[in-house]
Amino acid sequence: MGQTVSKDNAKPVSLKQVKIKDDFWNYYINLVRDVVVPYQWDAINDRVEGAERSGAVSNFKIAAGLEKGDFYGFVFQDTDVAKWLEAVGYLLEMKRDEALEQVADEMIDIIGKAQQPDGYLNTFYTIKEPGNKWTNLTECHELYSAGHMIEAGVAYYKATGKRKLLDIVCRIADDIAVVFGDGPDQIAGYDGHQEIELALVKLYETTGNRKYLELSSYFIDKRGQQPSFFEAEADRRGRTTHWSNNKIHIDPEYFQAHLPVREQEAAVGHAVRVVYMLAGMADVARETGDETLIEACRRLWDNIASKQMYITGGIGSMAHGEAFSFDYDLPNDTVYSETCASIGLIFFAHRMLQLEPNSRYADVMERALFNTVIAGMSRDGRHFFYVNPLEVTPDVCDGKNKNYNHVKPVRQEWFGCACCPPNIARLLASLGEYLYSTKGNTIYSHLYIGGEMELALGDTKIKLNQQSSMPWEGTARYEVTLEQPASFALALRIPDWSSHASVLVNGEIYPIANQIVDGYARIDRHWTSGDVVELSLEMPIQRVRSHPLVKQNAGKVALQRGPLVYCVEEADNGPQLEKLHLPQQAKLEASYEENLIGGIQVIKAEGLKLQFEQWGSQLYRSNADADLEPASLTFIPYYAWANRGKGEMAVWVKERL
Amino acid sequence: MGQTVSKDNAKPVSLKQVKIKDDFWNYYINLVRDVVVPYQWDAINDRVEGAERSGAVSNFKIAAGLEKGDFYGFVFQDTDVAKWLEAVGYLLEMKRDEALEQVADEMIDIIGKAQQPDGYLNTFYTIKEPGNKWTNLTECHELYSAGHMIEAGVAYYKATGKRKLLDIVCRIADDIAVVFGDGPDQIAGYDGHQEIELALVKLYETTGNRKYLELSSYFIDKRGQQPSFFEAEADRRGRTTHWSNNKIHIDPEYFQAHLPVREQEAAVGHAVRVVYMLAGMADVARETGDETLIEACRRLWDNIASKQMYITGGIGSMAHGEAFSFDYDLPNDTVYSETCASIGLIFFAHRMLQLEPNSRYADVMERALFNTVIAGMSRDGRHFFYVNPLEVTPDVCDGKNKNYNHVKPVRQEWFGCACCPPNIARLLASLGEYLYSTKGNTIYSHLYIGGEMELALGDTKIKLNQQSSMPWEGTARYEVTLEQPASFALALRIPDWSSHASVLVNGEIYPIANQIVDGYARIDRHWTSGDVVELSLEMPIQRVRSHPLVKQNAGKVALQRGPLVYCVEEADNGPQLEKLHLPQQAKLEASYEENLIGGIQVIKAEGLKLQFEQWGSQLYRSNADADLEPASLTFIPYYAWANRGKGEMAVWVKERL
Questions:
Q1: How many Å lie between the alpha carbon of A618 and the closest alpha carbon of chain B?
Q2: Which of A322, A338, A366, A391 is catalytic?
Q3: SS (H, E, C) A171-225
């Protein structure tokens, strides 16, 4: 068990080693524990009134022979149970909970009974189309569903030491290893929706069974090779499609199957699939040291982060295919920016940090986490965004222009396709894994989230107690506890949003100017128990502009303070937000409002507002312009939007010279 | 025959009375005669290589029993033949042409044979579903198709005096009058696509048979009444849909059937249907004097012209439903702006001018004609735009963002759904009808297009010979020829684009300041043969801005000179047009380039161009802006775009203070 290959990679710190104690984040983690996970359990058991039917648990009971009935839901409905179990695993890893564990154990028993003798586990095919398994990898997510169950099995085993689900998922993976491959009776293919790749690396790292790593590599290497596996599969099947009575039409870019992964130059197609694929590629690259794969990861990272990412860390510019579109195309209103895609981007960033610690990965991880991910959930933990727009006019989303049909102006209760809520739950429940990593004798601190962390560097046991005032203020304090003095480095990320950073060690200035490596301030010294490091990051309100080729933001500015991107809402600024202008010289002031949306730092500015009583009713006028009158503008953090009823919202505001 | 009701409406001047002699427009009219109409005849006979199959003529032959085969094309394929015949009618009304007339006569013979004994004429139902006629008015365009044939019958009769097609269409209309109505065995409904309404008024005005006017009124009055006719019809049919095997879902707004027409406050749904409906409503209102109908026409006119119309006279902001979206929503790139919709807007404007001469109608008519309509056709008369974008990036339309799939960066040869090319042909062939109208003792000159016009006001026969330098220069000269001196008024439109107008009568200043009524300068005097009126309109290059609520044009400016809206093209300005800025103080200079795209006035300006070598690769930067460097900008008339290969184009350009 455990890692069998030791390379010069940064190592993540596991959830067991970290105990988050943070004013900002404990709210969300407690919400996941107290509300989201119980609520989702009710939802997947079809016990939430008014929510869309799920069928996920009952599908397993039917497949297990414990209930009569028909399969209900999407072909990948099983993953709602898997993601719930994975989140439960993380919660239990943080804190055991007998009652919750018992519910999970019972679910696992049912899953065990639904597994077929050969290891196959998928309730859709078991109940509905037993003869058709593995015939439509393109559309039917069998390997994707298996991957989620594998992640659940690994998480639950790590948390509880119980092997039952781990054994189940090993049998799933063993079966897949028999079914897939280049042998004469094997399928030389891969899944339409990536996920199995990263799951198999987790399974390898947990079991030490190298077969799983090789299987993951196989899927990655096969992807996009010619002749097309998806086309050949479609031909074998008579070109049916799962979704209608029509014939299938395959757009290989949608599945990132247009080119071998190492030859892909830009992120294209379904955004979640892209980042899940990249996370799996980075995993395999980490374990195998394959430089060509690392290079592909870096190239696609750069494409996403420098050409296709919203300022909120959202990705996916178009609803059609829930997909990337093209470089610098970042519409704010017709955007997709699925919550799951930002979560996947965090998975990818987390893996890149293990490959090569560099603040550019952690900056994006933080951006996605503090903005899109927590915007995806309401403050009550019961309502969720699937799509995260940067500009909303409720009337318009409510049907006036069909290009906006996918955009919801308020969070929804539960989705028929419920990928996002459990994804938020499993990310937040495992947040501790994302804070630190180690490489050699260096401890990297990626995210400024308070709490205790224990680890060993070689024989040295180290405890770090981080206190953070972020995201509201720019300070973090680390207290080091050691059994005996030791030499190592503590590397603190200097975020891209900070204009100036300074460090005190035991109250004295520690000069970092020449100690910044790959975006981290290295404090490399001989430490004694009780040493205190104080990081101070200037956190000015920033006026952010987009690359000039982003048409949609031309002439517009967004405000950011620390990791938080801000927005204007109708609740504070009245309707027709397009009337607002922020002069370049306007003074911006931040103030904490304790009673607003759980307590937030608000930014106020003396702005301008179009008034066009003088303009008249003409649609076009020559040699005329609208008047501007003074108006007080209020910005709130983007994550907090849509918690005060239905109204307009915009991140980008017109700038005035 | 002839008009039987005489009211105080303005009367149009017919095509026979006008002989266009105009440098700018004769090119287009000759193109229609020499290229478009012959080409379209080949196209609907399936003789154009590389173009999509039409089937339109052969459908008639099959229905007539003259050929074997199956119906091909859309359910409204017959209208391609009808619109072609209508265009032929207008060409013949301008100038008889035996060869062309013989081809048309032969086509009309075939049509006569395809007509059923009861008068019913529709090749789709006759060939394919004889038992299902009149069962899916919602989707299947039977009355729409009938309407187009009626327009053809009227035009062909007026041109040639031949009654055969007129008799055919009277029998069609007579049959419709039997089938539709509130009687026990009648259908109390209306068509999903308006067109029959305006056609029946033409038939009434030509035949004097008031039944046709009443039938038109009936369709207009029924529309949008509750309970829904479309829903009831769907229920009777088992809720099938013509377009797939699914069940029908009816969006009443798409068909303007959400409210009775008199209660509709804004233009919604399919744009062509809206303006065809409004043209029919204005026709009925003109003939009946129904004030409530006139009021509805005015209200919807105002909504379109002051809240939902592109600067090019295009309408329809969204591809989904080829439809209006909502007030001030005018995206330039995902726009629909169908050529047919602008043609329909011209039909509507033309009718409003007959109801009440007011330059606001003629201004829009001119805007749509000089910009969208002639942009819809290439200079060679063989390539057409269906969608008329105001901003194009070819890469993007070619599939990178699916929201742009409907936008083509170059004109296409022939469409499977070929509504636009024949619509351009019939409008341009009948252009003479749109130039003048009379009301009481006033002759209104709406469009400055040169040529001769003869009419009688009471007993006074008047000849007007207009010479126009427009659209390139702002002068028009009228020479009046009379048999004897007479008193009447000549009312010359002062266009919305002119900053100053002056009039000379026989070389002497005629003060018009107090003579402007509803946007027309009235020259009310006693005239003698040989009198000459010279109109001089200042035609400065205008910097046009949009109403501040048009988000898409905020901070942008468009250039217009006379009726022509300008654009920048990649051919002149290089790629990435979003880099261009036009400073508010930039000097603008127009110059005529004889050899460019048939001879056009080009506008040049010293502008600015973003250069972002300094910006770096970051997608977002705080406290940074891109640099601008001087760049010479070239604007060409919008109608002339896409005649020099595939490239970017934009009407709205960023402005710089």
A1: 6
A2: A322
A3: HHHHHHHHHECCCCCCECCCCCCCCHHHHHHHHHHHHCCHHHHHHHHHHHHHCCC
